[in-house]
Design brief:
With 127 residues, chain A is of the alpha+beta class. Chain A has helices spanning 3-18, 51-76, 112-123; strands at 22-28, 34-41, 44-47, 80-87, 91-96, 101-106. In chain B, the strands form 5 sheets. In chain B, strands 3-4-5-1-2-11 form a 6-stranded antiparallel sheet, with helices on both faces. Chain B has a 5-stranded antiparallel sheet with strand order 7-6-10-9-8, sandwiched between helices. The chains are: A alpha+beta (127), B alpha+beta (645). The A-B interface holds A 56-57, 60, 63-64, 67-68, 70-72, 74-76, 78-90, 92, 96, 105, 108, 113 and B 130, 154-155, 157-159, 161-162, 164-166, 168-170, 172-187, 189, 191, 206, 585.
Chain lengths: 127, 645
């Protein structure tokens, strides 16, 4: 693990520790490759390394981004910056930055959108 | 009766705003149950229309409930020779209808837009750019904008993409049913979509600045929940319970008596035709949007909020009655119950015949209304009947020859076929991997190879179906455009002014020295499609300058689409590639919708009328029968050939 990777790993852990409502954070490259996936489990915060799971979330992020782009570009030629979906049991936000796409899943009404945007900004220094 | 006063107020404002619209009478009514009783705004209804309305309502109730077995409807229009009666569901207010008796040439959608604007402004202060009410599959029920004319079709595409996004996130993350989705653009656009509790309606607003999200629930709470019960008028429609639901319930009670709990039996009260319809819609929607032929029963149970026994019974009932092809099975590894959905057959000739028969019956049922309409003094012809009939026949010919609804359906079918093929390719690839991994187990490999052969056979059939459909679409699109181009002059140049987001169209006579032209600004989506299409196919061999200014990216997409459509059966390798189907998503961008076509004709006529002393545009521009180019009347001869041919 190099210095940069260590840096954003500790940042993600900090986000988990300071925000008890956060359940999962996934970072993906704009090309759709998974970077890291952290999940809150019974045993604590775990990094998921099972490729079938990391790929599944990367695929979800990729599909959501392209569907969001299609939605907005049809209306006004804009590309998507943030998607925020509020469900009864989960709050989900996907934030697009130049070099990383951040997916944050929280408990309901967990302000996933604010966390995703803040995280995307904070991660810029590592990317 | 606050809700009714507010609506009446909106109606008053609307009538004031459109004083020149040929509307005889407009009134509001509230349907108290499915079909039999309604509340009429008596202040505006003229007694002479009661008989017409009564008759129309009786026929409507019979057709919709008994003949067509439709559980809900939005619009009924009955046209006489010069007057029409329109009844429209006044969304988003369920069970409240706006009724108009009007000139048959009136576009009631315009009236509705103005009406909805007033309703939205009642008691609410919010800044929005576009607002729309969306049905569960993404189709807009109504769309309106404060700043510009909204293209319903584009809005539908946009919202359908968003609903697919929401559906996928909900499935993958188990969000538990999505109530709100907000998408922020990279500039300042924000799209807010709020779903109602039963998830069958969504209220969408686009705004440029952060503002209050206006939820549909809030509106309905204020207005709809205040509906009290005075019934002022009853139509002569026999009271019926719900025979369909009663039949289903009694069959189920007989079959499952003793096998389910009393509590679950109680929940059968919600097991009506509406629930069955929404269950079928849900299944078809998942199958279509995700190309899925296996749907978890757990997912369906959560989506439909039904007890598992009731869901089982509903699915068995629907499968037995042929609502869709499929069966209930178990997932191989987890053992969880799944619904296996077979690909739905495309409409057969028999289906089409049945539909035509029903349409004929409906037409016959409406016939008795004509005498009613002609007996009234107000329905006497108000203009020269020959002029009206000529205008109508021209319009109807245009509508029938350039109707593109079937093209959109064909395009949607192609996308479904493509997603099925993608799935086959993935299955083949997976089976091939399993064969490689299990080579030492000969018996298992034999079984895998058998499955592989069947899958490859399925793949071949799907590939042929795609090639056939794509060729048909290409041919129909070509025919549709050829007719359209005989009715509309082709712009000699088109420029997009990004600063004001407008397209400038220039129509010039094709004679080199002629200066006859019309110059016009429009938000011309339809014109852009025509221009792209003609450029790609080179129907007209050469145009004057200006083409190179077209959006290069769009031109590249269209080039790709048509080269792939034309070569689709010749390149098996390309077919097998998953990426090769991305182009199908762009197909709809080439089809001029019926609304766009009508808008082009209307706006061009208006512009030409203003700039040419009210002359009809066919007298200003005519198409040469030989070279197909358009010329002004000075440069085309009486035999409809230009001076060059």
């Amino acid at each position: 693990m190099n210095q940069s990777t260590e840096g954003f790993h500790s940042l993600l852990h900090e986000v988990f520790e300071q925000n008890s409502q956060v359940l999962m954070i996934s970072l993906t490259t704009p090309e759709g490759l998974p970077i890291v996936l952290l999940s809150r489990e019974d045993s604590g915060i775990e990094e998921i390394t099972d490729m079938s799971i990391t790929n599944r979330y990367a695929a979800l992020v990729g599909a959501s981004t392209s569907l969001g782009d299609r939605t907005l570009s049809t209306l006004s030629q804009e590309t998507v910056r943030l998607i925020h979906v509020q469900g009864e049991s989960r709050d989900i936000a996907i934030s697009m930055a130049e070099k990383v796409i951040t997916l944050v899943i929280t408990e309901p009404s967990g302000s996933a959108n604010l966390l995703a945007e803040k995280l995307a900004n904070a991660l810029k220094i590592y990317m | 009766m606050e809700w009714f006063r507010l609506l009446e107020n909106a109606l008053e404002h609307t009538m004031v705003e459109v004083p020149d619209q040929p509307i005889d009478s407009a009134f509001l009514l509230s349907i108290e149950d499915d079909k039999s009783k309604f509340l009429v705004n008596k202040a505006r209804i003229d007694k002479k229309y009661i008989a017409i309305f009564d008759k129309a309502w009786s026929i409507l109730a019979q057709i919709l409930t008994n003949e067509l077995q439709l559980s809900s409807w939005k619009t009924l229009t009955i046209s006489g020779r010069s007057r029409a009666l329109s009844i429209k569901l006044l969304t988003p207010f369920p069970k409240i209808y706006l009724t108009l008796i009007h000139d048959i040439n009136l576009d009631t959608n315009d009236f509705m837009q103005i009406m909805m604007k007033h309703i939205l402004n009642l008691g609410y202060k919010t800044k929005y750019e576009t607002a729309g009410l969306i049905a569960s599959e993404g189709y807009p029920i109504w769309v309106m904008s404060e700043t510009q004319q909204v293209d319903e079709y584009l809005f539908a595409i946009s919202i359908t993409s968003l609903l697919t996004l929401v559906e996928r996130i909900d499935m993958e993350v188990a969000a538990g049913g999505v109530s709100t989705c907000i998408v922020h653009g990279n500039e300042d656009l924000q799209l807010d979509v709020v779903f109602n509790p039963s998830k069958d309606l969504a209220f969408a607003i686009t705004q440029r600045t952060s503002g209050e999200i206006v939820g549909i629930d809030e509106r309905l709470k204020m207005i709809y929940e205040n509906i009290s019960d005075p019934i002022l008028y009853s139509a002569h429609v026999p009271e019926t319970e719900n025979p369909e639901r009663d039949k289903i319930l009694s069959e189920l009670r007989e079959e499952y008596s003793g096998e389910i709990t009393e509590e679950e039996m109680q929940s059968l009260n919600i097991f009506d035709t509406e629930t069955l319809d929404s269950l079928v819609n849900e299944i078809m929607s998942v199958a279509r949007n995700f190309g899925a032929n296996e749907i978890s029963l757990g997912y369906l149970r959560k989506r439909m909020k039904l007890p598992s026994e009731v869901l089982h019974m509903a699915l068995e009932y629907l499968i037995t009655n042929g609502a869709f092809l499929g069966k209930i099975g178990r997932e191989k590894h987890s053992g969880k119950e799944i619904l296996l959905v077979k690909p739905q057959k495309i409409r057969t000739e028999d289906d089409i015949n049945v539909i035509q028969n029903i349409q004929q019956q409906v037409n016959d049922l409406f016939l008795p209304l004509d005498p009613f309409l002609t007996q009234l003094p107000v329905v006497q012809p108000i203009a020269d009947t020959e002029v009206i009939s000529e205008a109508l026949s021209e319009f109807h010919v245009l509508q029938s020859l350039t109707d593109t609804d079937s093209l959109f359906l064909l395009s949607a079918d192609l996308r479904i076929l493509a997603s099925q093929l993608e799935r086959s390719v993935m299955t083949i690839s997976m089976l091939q991997e399993q064969v490689t991994e299990n080579q030492e187990n000969i018996a298992f490999v034999q079984e895998l190879k058998g499955r592989l052969d069947k899958q490859i056979e399925k793949f071949t059939d799907q590939r042929t179906a795609i090639a056939t459909s794509a060729k048909k679409l290409f041919s129909d699109l070509l025919n549709s455009y050829r007719i359209l181009l005989k009715l509309l002059p082709i712009p000699s140049s088109i420029k997009h002014n990004k600063a004001i987001d407008k397209i400038s169209l220039v129509f010039k006579c094709n004679h080199a020295l002629c200066k006859q032209f019309l110059y016009k600004y429009d938000d011309a989506i339809g014109w852009s499609k025509i221009v792209y299409f003609t450029q790609v196919l080179k129907i007209i061999e050469s145009f004057p300058e200006g083409w190179e200014q077209l959006d290069q990216q769009k031109m590249a997409i269209i080039d790709t689409i048509f080269s792939k459509l034309q070569n689709i059966s010749d390149s098996d390798q390309q077919i097998a590639s998953l990426e090769s189907f991305a182009f199908l998503n762009e197909l709809d961008e080439l089809i001029v919708s019926n609304g766009e076509r009508d808008k082009m004709i209307t706006s061009l006529r208006q512009a030409l009328d203003q700039s040419n002393n009210q002359a009809d545009y066919y007298t200003v521009f005519r198409q040469c029968n030989n070279c197909q180019k358009w010329y002004c009347s000075n440069h085309i001869r009486s035999n409809e050939l230009c001076i060059y041919c």
